Amino acid sequence: MTLALPKSVALQNARDISSVWIVIPAYNEGAVIADTVLHARTLFKHVVVINDGSSDDTAIAAERAGATVVNHPVNLGQGAALQTGIDFAIVRGANFVATFDADGQHCIDDVLTMFNYLQSENLDVVLGSRFLGNAIGISRLRRTVLWAAIIFTRLTTGLKLTDAHNGLRVFTSGSIAKISLYQNRMAHASEILEQIAKHKFAYAELGNTVRYTPYSLAKGQPSSNSVNILIDLFLGRLRK
Amino acid sequence: MIAKILLTLSLFAGWLYIFTQSGISKALRFSLYTILGFGLYTVWFPETSTVVANILGIGRGADLIFYTWIAFSFGVLLNVHLKLRQHLNLITRLSRNIAIDNTITGRSRSSNTDAFKTFEEDAAHTMQTVNIKALSINDSVTE
Lengths: 240, 143
What we know:
The complex is a heterodimer of chains A (240) and B (143). Chain A is of the alpha/beta class. Chain A has 10 helices and 8 strands. Chain A has helices spanning 7-18, 33-41, 58-64, 78-91, 108-120, 140-157, 173-176, 188-198, 214-219, 225-238, and strands at residues 2-3, 20-26, 46-52, 68-72, 96-99, 125-136, 169-172, 203-211. Chain A has a 7-stranded mixed sheet with strand order 4-3-2-5-7-6-8, sandwiched between helices. In chain A, strand 3 (46-52), helix 3 and strand 4 (68-72) form a beta-alpha-beta unit. The longest helix of chain A has 18 residues, at 140-157. The termini of chain A are far apart. Chain B is built from 5 helices and 1 strand. Chains A and B meet through strand 1, helix 1, helix 3, strand 4 and helix 4 of A and helix 2, helix 4, helix 5 and strand 1 of B.
């Protein structure tokens, strides 16, 4: 039988959970964003959707579902949207920030598990790993590309991860305030890991569920985009 | 001699171009300076280019200069790309500030909805969250 917690502990938990901000970058996700926001709001009060210059009804759908919507005037890319969401959450007083995909791939229960683990282990960041959890419907090609990304990340950052491009992450506000994304497009995932290594954040990986649906496969980046990511990362290093 | 002077002046203009560029890495700047320095040397000592070309297995000095020119052009192209990227970075920061400012001041609301909850609604949501999930997952006590 489950007993209720003492009131003081319950209030502390409530305060902690209410200071988690779910950051969801979205570009033309009008078909699914309402479901994603409603799903997130079953557990978390603060859900911010960064509408990255969508030409469909993403912003309206997200707002009607209860999200705070930050509208980019033009399309800038997922990395740029993520940074905007992070900045907004910090401005609004977030103590914890979770990044979450808009296309319905992720499960919000995983965020809560990661958040609890972050707190119990006193970590700076907890990263999701589909290969420690479940990758439902993943193709062999995608698995191979992600495996190559893991090797690349290990060589360039020294981080020993089992999943290098998982969009589900939970940060403390103190750690994520130090993250500054230069990569506007998909290379931001590698850039985040580079900065985690650079700042020597205390991190851990937890298994999460990633569900590949026909929608997410059609909307998501093709595996060939990994070449663009490598070029972006290389060019990013040439700047001063 | 006139050609040598004109080429030297052209290379000097190239040096000025690199010198005035900001936002490029030290490695790229050093590479461009090296190529320019080599170009200047071969203008005044053209036989050297053939010697170096032979060492590198290219054969003719003229070919070596042609290849070096391609490398230099690539470096300049890269620099132009980085400049464009700098501008994109400025646009990104500008867009971000506008977006956040509009949201905070309420200017960017997409429709008239109840997205902005009252304090009481927020508090109720929080307690509901605790009751449903947090207790059972993290801090539950069983008997």
